[in-house]
Design brief:
The complex is a heterodimer of chains A (352) and B (314). Helices cover 65% and strands 1% of the residues of chain A. Chain A is mainly α and 352 residues long. Among the domains of chain A are: 36-155, no CATH class; 156-267. Chain B has 314 residues and is mainly α. The relative contact order of chain B is 0.05. In chain B, 79% of the residues lie in helices and 1% in strands. The chains are: A mainly alpha (352), B mainly alpha (314). Strand 1 (301-302) of chain A pairs parallel with strand 1 of chain B, so a sheet runs across the interface.
């Protein structure tokens, strides 16, 4: 009985997904040996269904009234997840991931309640639960969450927590240079490279207050560590991403630059809207230059699409434009009573 | 790092992929070909979001200082300028680039903001002020068809939904917002209108346009029905509508092979039914068991559909 796909099986699963082939067809089926996965839209839906199912198991156990209902619910959830993996050979299907992680988290909560409700102890239990779930299910989301929760579990000052995050990010960045047999291990490190510097910035910036702009013109040199760390990280990750040609470091650098820009927002007396428009225009110009420069490919790097786009990526783009679209004017006409109109446009409320 | 080079070679030698496909895939695995297409698109989206948010704040807070006419004119010029790259790209051989497409989106959003602002300032349409959303729908639809832009078509459809009184926003994303019978009905009528539009303009629609119409229509209709499910007086109608919509969506998924519609059909129905059970039973032992049964049945049905679609896709 296999506990999880072997590295070879996982590689073939990843390959089938990458070139959008059915894993049940030859030659994939020979290598994958019955493991079943789901594509992203279904995986997300299965995950949500799994979370609801775990929640309902918890409620049923609680309503039945035995002592330690959370332990029973946790064990049942884990048992169902393991049955799905071992007997039905589900992997990366969403539902077994949700049930497994939820079950382990319930057990962590039960342990937490036994030793007393201290925040750092709770963080340690949940961190261990998510780490076990992540490694068992080869899920980068859970391992990343485990590392994120590990930081408060260390119980150190915010600035030190921030530096720990950057440190973990750097270690992950170095580790992504190694060759891995399992694509999931690569993905776990990639997630850490992307998330940890942002977490590091949030921790170090929360030392003061995120909402209030720091006056860096009159700040001590040591205060500059907060905006300079993400900038430094952005430079390093961009260089590494371009030289290794991997996406995670490039995405990390794209996230670190806004962190620095946000932290240094108090340096100019420009109004928020002016800064937003200026940054937007700068980004537009940079993207346009990059797009044109790389259109024909420079050293193998191109701005053109080289793979068939997944359906979900297209839907995300459309969803993004829906989010930005203004759908009613700033103020309603005084004579109009919004909210309860009838068919034919009278329903628009005029809220902006 | 990992590379699936050896597996790719095996696919080539077994004849699963042709030589050109193997060569392309190997170049990607060896990273001798590396695309930053997605990163650039993300940058462009953020750029558009920043500019349009800034413009929104300018409109909201600086009316007195700039003056309405100057603001309307400036926004119109800025919006028009954003259309130029897409128009130029259309006449060139290469087709529109991602930059031109996102600039076009920015132009469309600025035009929407400008027209909305002009209407709120000058009351050009009087009591029928919401018709400016219909005008915007027509304008964006024309632009989308002329310049073949999915992003602008989605702006047009969002304006249309706005005209029907369906607003999107963090506070409106819950089905409880749709719980009023009127709003649920408007969502369904808007959805039917979009499908009728898709059918009428089917010759002009590229395949990807049809997809957008269908995704918009499906989500609106399902959200309206789920909203009804959360309203005590409309529960039965909501459940029946949800089941009918699910049947249509699953049929669509089986015909087209598009998994998203199966996800809509199963996901929304499970959600709506669970909402009804939770409200009626207060999630007691029986209610929780029933929701668990609904969820497990939904998962099994979706798994089955997923497998069927995967087999039929190849």
């Amino acid at each position: 009985m296999m506990l999880q796909p072997t590295p070879s099986e996982e590689r073939w699963l990843a390959l089938a997904r990458r070139i959008r082939r059915n894993p049940r067809d030859l030659p994939f089926s020979e290598h994958i040996r019955g493991w079943r996965t789901a594509r992203l839209p279904s995986r997300c839906t299965f995950f949500i269904l799994g979370l609801i199912a775990a929640g309902m198991i918890g409620i049923i156990a609680e309503r039945l009234g035995p002592k330690g209902a959370l332990v029973i619910a946790g064990v049942v959830s884990i048992a169902v997840a393991e049955w799905l993996i071992l007997c039905r050979r589900h992997f990366w299907s969403g539902i077994e991931e949700a049930l497994g992680a939820a079950g382990l988290t319930m057990l962590a909560f039960e342990c937490w309640s036994h030793v007393g409700w201290s925040a750092s102890t709770g963080s340690r239990f949940i961190c261990v639960a998510l780490a076990i779930a992540g490694l068992r299910l080869l899920n980068p989301l859970f391992t990343t969450l485990a590392v994120l929760i590990l930081v408060p579990a260390l119980d150190v000052p915010p600035l030190a927590s921030g530096l720990v995050c950057y440190g973990i990010g750097i270690v992950a960045l170095i580790a992504t240079g190694c060759r891995f047999r399992r694509p999931s291990h690569d993905l776990m490190l990639g997630y850490l490279v992307v998330v940890m510097p942002v977490s590091g910035y949030l921790w170090s910036a929360s030392h003061g207050s995120l909402a209030v702009a720091t006056d860096y013109l009159h700040a001590t040199p040591s205060a500059w560590i907060v905006p300079l760390c993400p900038l430094l990280f952005a430079g390093v990750t961009l260089a590494v991403g371009v030289s290794r040609r991997t996406h995670a470091p490039i995405i990390a650098s794209m996230l670190c630059v806004p962190c620095t820009a946000y932290e240094l927002r108090g340096l100019t007396s420009l109004a928020l809207q002016t800064r937003l428009i200026l940054w937007g225009l700068v980004l537009l110009v940079v993207s346009t230059i990059l797009d044109r420069y790389l259109r024909e490919g420079r050293g193998g790097i191109t701005s053109r699409k080289v793979r068939d786009m997944d359906d979900s990526a297209g839907v995300l783009g459309v969803l993004g434009s829906v989010v930005l679209t203004p759908h009613s004017p700033p103020k309603a006409a005084p004579s109009f009573e919004g909210g309860g109109g009838s068919f034919g446009g009278g329903g628009a409320t005029g809220r902006y | 790092m990992h590379s699936l080079e050896e597996e790719m070679r095996e696919l080539g030698s077994s004849g699963t992929l042709d030589e050109a496909a193997v060569a392309h895939a190997l170049a990607l695995e060896r990273r001798s070909l590396f695309s930053v297409f997605d990163e650039l698109r993300a940058l462009l989206y953020v750029a558009v979001a920043l500019v349009i948010t800034g413009v929104g704040i300018v409109i909201k807070e600086h009316l007195d200082r700039i003056g309405p006419l100057t603001l309307v004119f400036t926004l119109a010029v800025a919006g028009a300028a954003c259309y130029v790259p897409a128009i130029r790209a259309k006449s060139s051989e290469g087709g529109p680039s991602a930059v031109a497409d996102y600039l076009l989106l920015l132009g469309a959003l600025i035009v929407s903001a400008d027209v909305g602002y002009a209407e709120s300032q000058f009351h050009l349409l009087g009591a029928n002020w919401s018709r400016h959303l219909l005008l915007l729908t027509a304008f964006h639809a024309l632009t989308a068809y002329a310049l073949r832009s999915r992003l602008v078509l989605s702006v047009a459809l969002t304006s249309l939904a706005g005209w029907f009184g369906i607003e999107r926003g963090p506070e409106n994303l819950s089905p409880w917002h749709f719980a009023t019978p009127g709003l649920g009905l408007r969502a369904l009528v808007c959805s039917a209108f979009m499908l009728a539009w898709r059918t009428i303009a089917r010759h002009a629609n590229a395949a990807e346009f049809r997809e957008i119409f269908e995704h918009f229509a499906a989500n609106l209709a399902f959200w309206g029905a789920v909203g009804w499910c959360s309203d005590a007086s409309m529960r039965v109608v909501g459940i029946v509508t949800l089941l009918l919509l699910a049947a249509v969506a699953i049929r669509r998924a089986l015909r087209s092979g598009e998994e998203s519609f199966a996800v809509y059909g199963i996901g929304y129905t499970a959600f709506g039914s669970s909402v009804v059970v939770a409200q009626v039973t207060d999630l007691g032992l029986f209610g929780a068991t029933l929701v668990l049964v609904i969820v497990l049945t939904a998962a099994a049905a979706l798994r089955r559909l997923h497998d069927v679609l995967r087999e039929s896709r190849i």
